[in-house]
Design brief:
Belongs to the dihydropyrimidine dehydrogenase family. Heterotetramer of 2 PreA and 2 PreT subunits. GO terms for molecular function: dihydropyrimidine dehydrogenase (NAD+) activity; iron-sulfur cluster binding; metal ion binding. Involved in pyrimidine base degradation. Catalyzes physiologically the reduction of uracil to 5,6-dihydrouracil (DHU) by using NADH as a specific cosubstrate. It also catalyzes the reverse reaction and the reduction of thymine to 5,6-dihydrothymine (DHT). This protein has 432 residues and is an alpha/beta fold. The protein folds into 2 domains: 6-324, Aldolase class I (TIM Barrel); 328-421, 2-Layer Sandwich (Alpha-Beta Plaits), CATH 3.30.70.20. Helix content is 30%, strand content 20%. An 8-stranded parallel barrel has the order 3-4-7-8-9-10-15-16, surrounded by 8 helices. A 4-stranded antiparallel beta sheet has the order 5-6-14-11, with no helix packed on it. It is globular and about 75 Å long. The structure holds flavin mononucleotide and iron/sulfur cluster (2 copies). Residues 341, 346-352, 372, 389, 391, 394-395 line the site of one iron/sulfur cluster.
């Protein structure tokens, strides 16, 4: 079985699967059961400054989006940071770290944006023996209205300033958790790096309203007839998170900055994708809230088997796909494929026909007996038919060989060439 031991910003854990700061990491009772189930580390639910504990709503705090089988695809929440007393959390963190020395225990923090508040909380956390801190600059609801969370995370200068304070006043590794509620995620990542962050983690939740009740006209979840935007997470946000992780991994000014990948991770495969795009480890929240702590066992066995089959180590996987993320202008315009339908698998539902006929290139013919076939002369290989077909692998793409005739254009498939040298590009550079 592959060795999944990971060292992230100097913090060792038996595997790269950590729980993200959220209800599953809210208390000793949860974290101990998570460690027993096999999680390699946790980021403790965000602690606030000393003083009266945070107050949460007492009505529903979650909303959701489901697939047709009522599988949870997206989760929305209006929960705040921990509402348990600081001293209780600190006591439990110290105990858990003592009992589980081989697991990573990072503490998430969010306190007012002044140096004294940060200095004070860092001292308390250091006393617990925790392995590091994660700065929650991402929470998009409630705390941001009080000048914390994403209110800091949306201003790169504040990120840099607070990160610098944290590095000045503590010896612990510092992970800066980024908000996706921003136009260009590379800017806050650069700021974190300038401030001395050891790593960034992303994504926190996305501003969201999951639904509106059309009887009461209240956004859901409804608190006495009113709703507020919440933070969106779960499988639905994974593509957004993957893109943001890849942007940071391949940007010249942030390349090499360790990344903890978060957002919709449910299976070992999701985790491996984040790692291939540059994440040194991953964090999980919604999947555990949906299926429980034991899903880590599938993650461990799945990733081990994948690595064993390829004789790869975890380190070989991290960043492996980054060189293949490019800009549109460098894509090979001479790469030609054609859709093809497996008649044995086809259930004759006609979805591919409707999609291609009404919104793509009228490249699927419907025979008298509802036999569907691709017209190569029209097919631009857009992939829409594959995306809408309910039968996996019923429609696939066939790659045309170099020199083969493309019946649509009447031209032979040529070697690699991209937009930068294309004759239709007014800015085209002369081909070398
Ligand atoms: C109910 C709930 C509470 C959360 N609380 C926190 C928090 O206190 N601090 C924090 O940094 N992130 C918090 N998050 C965000 C998660 O840590 C994570 O970044 C986000 O849910 C995306 O991961 P996922 O798609 O695996 O859920 C919370 C998420 C949920 C669903
Ligand atoms: S790939 Fe696009 S153009 Fe070709 S058959 Fe499918 S939907 Fe039509
Ligand atoms: S969508 Fe798939 S299953 Fe349905 S008709 Fe087209 S090829 Fe057949």
């Amino acid at each position: 079985m592959a060795d999944l031991t990971t060292t992230f910003v100097g913090i060792k854990s038996p595997n790269p699967f950590w729980l993200a700061s959220a209800p599953p990491t809210d208390k000793e009772y949860n974290v101990v059961r998570a460690f027993k189930a096999g999680w390699g580390g946790v980021v403790w639910k965000t602690l606030g400054a000393e003083g009266p504990p945070i107050v949460n709503v007492n009505g529903p705090r979650y909303g959701a989006i489901w697939g047709a089988d009522r599988r949870l695809l997206g989760l929305n929440n209006i929960e705040l940071i921990t509402d348990r007393p600081l001293e209780v959390n600190l006591r439990e963190i110290k105990q858990v770290k003592r009992d589980w020395p081989d697991r990573a225990l990072v503490v998430s923090l969010m306190v007012p944006c002044d140096e004294e508040s940060w200095k004070a909380i860092l001292g308390h956390v250091e006393d617990t023996g925790a392995d590091g801190v994660e700065l929650n600059f991402g929470c998009p609801h409630g705390m941001s209205e009080r000048g914390m969370g994403s209110a800091v995370g949306q201003v790169p200068e504040y990120i840099e300033m607070v990160t610098r304070w944290v590095k000045q006043h503590s010896r612990m590794p510092c992970i800066v958790k980024l908000t996706p509620n921003i136009t260009d995620v590379r800017k806050p990542a650069e700021a974190a790096k300038r401030g001395g962050a050891d790593a960034v983690s992303l994504i926190n939740t996305i501003n969201s309203i999951t639904s509106v009740n059309l009887e009461s006209f209240s956004p859901e979840p409804s608190i006495d007839g009113k709703g507020a935007h919440g933070g969106y997470c779960g499988p639905a946000v994974k593509p957004i998170a993957l893109s943001m992780v890849s942007e940071i991994a391949r940007h010249a000014d942030t390349a090499g900055l360790p990344i903890s990948g978060i957002g919709g991770i449910t299976t070992w495969r999701d985790a491996a994708e984040f790692m291939a795009l540059g994440a040194g480890n991953v964090q999980v929240c919604t999947a555990v809230m949906t299926y429980g702590f034991k899903i880590v066992q599938e993650m461990i066995s799945g990733l081990s088997q994948y690595l064993d089959e390829r004789e790869m180590a975890v380190a070989d996987l991290v960043g492996r796909a980054v060189p293949n993320v490019t800009d549109w202008q460098y894509l090979n315009l001479n790469y030609v494929t054609k859709a093809q339908i497996d008649q044995e698998l086809c259930i004759k539902c006609g979805r591919c026909y409707a999609a291609c006929e009404d919104t793509s290139h009228q490249a699927i013919a419907m025979g008298q007996d509802r036999t569907f076939s691709v017209i190569d002369e029209e097919c631009v290989a857009c992939n829409l038919c594959i995306d809408v077909c309910p039968v996996e692998n019923c429609i696939t793409m066939r790659e045309l060989e170099i020199g083969e005739l493309d019946p649509r254009t009447g031209r032979k498939v040529a070697e690699y060439a991209n937009w930068t040298t294309h004759p239709n590009n007014p800015m085209a550079q002369a081909a070398e």
